[in-house]
Amino acid sequence: MRAEPDMVTMTDAQVRIIDRMDEELGYPFRDIASDTRVPEPEVRRVIRRFHDAGWAEFGTLYNQDEAKVAGRGYWLNGRGSDLKYAVRRHVGWAVLWPLASTLNAGGCE
User: Fold this and answer.
1) Cα 36 off chain centre by
2) pLDDT at residue 37 above 90?
3) pLDDT at 72 (0 to 100)
4) In terms of CB atoms within 10 Å, which of 2, 46, 92, 96 comes out highest?
5) HEC per residue, the chain
6) How many CB atoms lie within 10 A of CB 78?
7) Banded model confidence at residue 8, pLDDT cuts 50, 70, 90
8) pTM, two decimal places
């Protein structure tokens, strides 16, 4: 079953945060806050709500370059990934493109 977002209940911050989250890598709240221009306390709340809703996983993060534990954090699971791409389809790149341009200009891929 494919996820379909309820755009009436998703805030701009939620859309920006889920678009920034990854299916394979967890990022610190402060990095997501900086990249999305959403205050860090709100990023924490939103990502924890994504986890409570079953869209994100929480666990140990590894730094593959240094082959060591990097801490603990959240990443999107399959349901979250489906939701992320459903949001992209419904919101469209017209909304997300300025954010993507900002991220890419800063060296983020």
Assistant:
1) 9
2) yes
3) 85
4) 46
5) CCCCCCCCCCCHHHHHHHHHCCCCCCCCHHHHHHHHCCCHHHHHHHHHHHHHCCCEEEEEEEECCCCEEEEEEEEECHHHHHHHHHHHHHHCHHHHHHHHHHHHHCCCC
6) 12
7) very low
8) 0.73
